[in-house]
């Protein structure tokens, strides 16, 4: 399939496009009814704005969470509209009302992403209500229409979600699959000698953070729709979704664990075709995984014809040649790395094949790698909207308080320069200036700066589109159709391409106001000027009360190290359980929970680091050391993931291995505690490494041929533990250098 065609299909069947259509229908329906049947354009537009406010919060997630969030947004948005409408005839009262709401609603960001969306939705309603001066009766009607629009959209979205519950979970899993395919492709590039390893690490880590984020979103959806044995038809789909999710998590974990010393492999096998075979194998697995994701979005069994049998057999043949030449005895460490990499890649191929089979309901009777059990509730996220969380952020050290103050200051400046006191002829429109400021300003400096440029570009493009449309088109039904397309594309692109989303959002709002007051095309140019003014204010205020990203990095680093420690300890608990056993072990659940937490903590740390790198150089702290820690923490998680199935395959670990793992745990604890490195730590690990090698050699010397597999497991585990020890030493040495 042509690459561009495949991307178009991915978008059309994606949750983003589905969400865009659902939101467009829910947002525009009140306007169509009130305008088309009752000829109330102003009330129809107010109801549409109320629905739009709630639609901002309507993101993929658990049904109960979405219901609470949308109802809360509808009520708070109505309150914002009422306050603004009542204050609109009085300039000073409006100024105070807008400033107070900017502070209060911006502070909702303390509740995370959903809290920030609720706050933004309310502020959006506030700014759109500022468009007209309303008397008491008009204010009451406007507020009622906003409430009706918000409640309508909530009911509409929840009804659609109930009817098409399967579609949402299906699309969430497909996004996970696509993210994992991109991660696989980044892994494949490590085996290309022409690719710079450090540059590829940066891409790989960005993909890792994206996978962790998508898995967290899909996990909440899937684990709340587990098989219930009450509806056989629905149970079939629930089982399929559950199996697909567990498969994609296992695939990602397997590929994270395909980690080794890439420089060692490139050096030892530069004259061999092994690197080419590994690269092609992982590239094909990436293609196959992407094909499975596309099949899932279309609700069809995967018919992919990609096969990796040739690469697997070629690698097996090359390994056999190495054995005949005595390579395992001459280079035991390189051989252990090669075998470990091959086994994990081959296991990944098995999982992709299982993933493909699980897209067909005919294979639902196959045993999964995890049973449906009440313990799965431990994996779910919880809503936390306690008032204490809000009050605890009323301190100068809180980044959320500083963000709220910045937004308030910027809005105050925007309202002042566009007021009648300074601009009696309204050359600048306060509502559009404030809207621009609210869209641009985010808690982090880097994101605000990025949004500033994107918003500016998107607004100018949107103004140009509307200018051309209004110049050539005068049929109101065509303009309504254009509004529908604008809403669909604005909501579909908001997470994919913000410039495009901003352009379509601008087009939608301009077309909406055109229905209220058809007239001169000059209004489009005026909005472009308003956007320039708002962007300049937002950029200037971004430097006020800043909370630079480096302040967030140390606690996030501590959590990432601690999560790796728990992951390591959970993997030790797998001894004798067999991770791939379908029987539900408590140790298995603890391990999977620790694995989930380590990926989330790592993603939070790396995202914060990359945001810091977009800030002014004078505000960046220890970039080289932090970049090194990003790689080291990724390596540590990968090494633990590679060691886990080896530990599970053994009834117990030899004492030298247990002691080495305990030393790794101590090194990580000392790094988090800020203890200075001890001069003999390196020597201690070297001695433990020699003891491990001695234990493996003793097992090899006294083992019958039938136990050769156990010896190979010990050799591979010894290699992984050595890698862990080296990485722990690096983390231990690097953390004190971070300022």
Automatic annotation (TrEMBL):
Q: What residue intervals traverse the membrane?
A: 12-31, 37-57, 69-86, 92-110, 117-134, 140-160, 404-423, 429-447, 456-473, 479-499, 506-525, 531-550
Primary localization: membrane
For membrane topology, the record states: Multi-pass membrane protein
Location in the cell reads: Cell membrane
Determine the domain of life of the protein's source. Bacteria
Query: What residue stretches are annotated with the Integral membrane bound transporter domain?
Result: 422-541
* The keyword Iron-sulfur appears for this protein: no
- Which keywords does this chain's UniProt record carry? Cell membrane, Membrane, Transmembrane, Transmembrane helix
Annotated coiled-coil segments of the chain? none
Which Pfam families did the record assign?
Answer: FUSC-like (PF12805), FUSC_2 (PF13515)
> Could you tell me which InterPro entries the record lists for this protein?
Memb_transporter_dom, YccS_N
Segments forming domain Integral membrane protein YccS N-terminal: 70-347
Enumerate the PANTHER family for this protein: MULTIDRUG RESISTANCE PROTEIN MDTO, P-HYDROXYBENZOIC ACID EFFLUX PUMP SUBUNIT-RELATED
Q: Tell me the protein family, please.
A: Belongs to the YccS/YhfK family.
Q: Please give the name of this protein.
A: FUSC family protein
The species this protein was found in: Pigmentiphaga daeguensis
Recall the taxonomic lineage recorded for the source organism: Bacteria, Pseudomonadati, Pseudomonadota, Betaproteobacteria, Burkholderiales
């Amino acid at each position: 399939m042509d690459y561009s065609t495949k991307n178009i299909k991915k978008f059309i069947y994606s949750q983003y496009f589905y969400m865009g259509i659902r939101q467009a229908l829910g947002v525009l329906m009140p306007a169509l009814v009130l305008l088309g049947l009752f000829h109330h354009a102003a009330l129809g537009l107010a109801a549409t704005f109320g629905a739009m406010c709630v639609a901002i919060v309507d993101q993929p997630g658990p049904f109960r969470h979405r219901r609470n969030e949308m109802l809360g947004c509808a009520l708070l948005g109505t309150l914002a509209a009422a306050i603004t409408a009542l204050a609109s005839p009085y300039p000073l009262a409006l100024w105070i009302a807008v400033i107070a709401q900017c502070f209060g609603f911006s502070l909702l960001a303390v509740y995370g992403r959903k809290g920030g969306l609720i706050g933004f939705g309310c502020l959006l309603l506030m700014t759109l209500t500022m468009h007209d001066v309303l008397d008491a009766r008009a204010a009451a009607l406007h507020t009622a229409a906003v409430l009706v629009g918000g409640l309508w959209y909530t009911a509409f979205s929840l009804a659609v979600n109930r009817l098409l519950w399967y579609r949402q979970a299906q699309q969430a899993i497909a996004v996970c699959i696509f993210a994992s395919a991109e991660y696989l492709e980044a892994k494949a590039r490590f085996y290309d000698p022409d690719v710079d390893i450090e540059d590829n690490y940066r891409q790989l880590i960005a993909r890792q953070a994206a996978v962790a984020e998508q898995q967290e979103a899909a996990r909440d959806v899937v684990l709340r729709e587990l098989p219930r044995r009450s509806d056989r038809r629905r149970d079939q789909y629930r089982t399929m979704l559950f199996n697909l999710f567990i498969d994609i998590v296992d695939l990602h974990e397997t590929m994270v664990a395909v980690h080794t010393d890439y420089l060692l492999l490139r050096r030892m096998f530069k004259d061999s075709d092994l690197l080419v075979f590994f690269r092609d194998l992982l590239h094909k697995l990436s293609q196959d995984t992407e094909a499975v994701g596309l099949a899932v979005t279309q609700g069809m069994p995967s018919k992919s014809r990609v096969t990796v049998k040739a690469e697997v057999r070629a690698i097996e043949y090359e390994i056999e040649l190495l054995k005949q030449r005595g390579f395992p005895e001459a280079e035991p460490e390189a051989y252990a790395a090669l075998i470990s990499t091959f086994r994990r890649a081959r296991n990944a191929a098995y999982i992709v094949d299982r993933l493909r089979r699980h897209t067909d309901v005919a294979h639902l009777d196959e045993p999964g790698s995890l049973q449906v059990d009440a313990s799965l509730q431990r994996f779910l996220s919880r809503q936390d909207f306690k008032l204490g969380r809000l009050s605890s952020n009323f301190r100068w050290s809180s980044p959320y308080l500083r963000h709220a103050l910045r937004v308030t200051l910027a809005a105050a400046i925007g309202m002042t320069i566009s007021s009648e006191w300074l601009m009696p002829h309204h050359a600048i429109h306060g509502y559009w200036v404030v809207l621009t400021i609210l869209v641009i300003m985010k808690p982090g400096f880097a994101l605000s700066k990025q949004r500033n440029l994107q918003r500016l570009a998107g607004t100018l493009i949107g103004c140009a589109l509307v200018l051309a449309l209004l110049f050539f088109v005068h049929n109101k039904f065509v303009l309504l159709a254009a509004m529908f397309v604008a809403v669909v594309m604005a909501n579909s692109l908001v997470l994919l391409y913000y410039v495009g989303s901003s352009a379509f959002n601008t087009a939608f709002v301009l077309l909406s106001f055109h229905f209220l007051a058809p007239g001169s095309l000059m209004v489009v140019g005026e909005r472009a000027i308003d956007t320039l003014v708002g962007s300049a204010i937002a950029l200037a205020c971004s430097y006020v009360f800043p909370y630079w990203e480096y302040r967030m990095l140390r606690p996030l680093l501590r959590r990432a190290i601690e999560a790796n420690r728990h992951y390591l300890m959970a993997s030790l608990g797998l001894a004798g359980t067999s991770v791939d056993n379908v029987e539900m072990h408590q140790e298995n659940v603890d391990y999977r929970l620790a694995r989930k937490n380590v990926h989330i903590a790592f993603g939070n740390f790396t995202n914060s680091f990359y945001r810091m790198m977009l800030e002014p150089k004078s505000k960046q702290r220890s970039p080289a050391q932090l970049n090194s820690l990003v790689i080291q923490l990724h390596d540590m998680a990968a090494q633990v993931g590679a060691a886990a199935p080896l530990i599970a395959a053994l009834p117990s670990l030899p004492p030298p291995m247990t002691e080495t793992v305990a030393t790794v745990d101590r090194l990580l604890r000392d790094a988090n505690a800020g203890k200075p490195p001890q001069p003999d730590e390196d020597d201690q690990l070297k001695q433990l490494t020699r003891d491990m090698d001695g234990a493996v050699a003793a097992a090899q010397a006294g083992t019958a041929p039938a136990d050769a597999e156990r010896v190979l497991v010990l050799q591979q585990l010894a290699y992984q533990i050595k890698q862990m020890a080296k990485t722990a030493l690096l983390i231990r040495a690097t953390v004190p250098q971070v300022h």
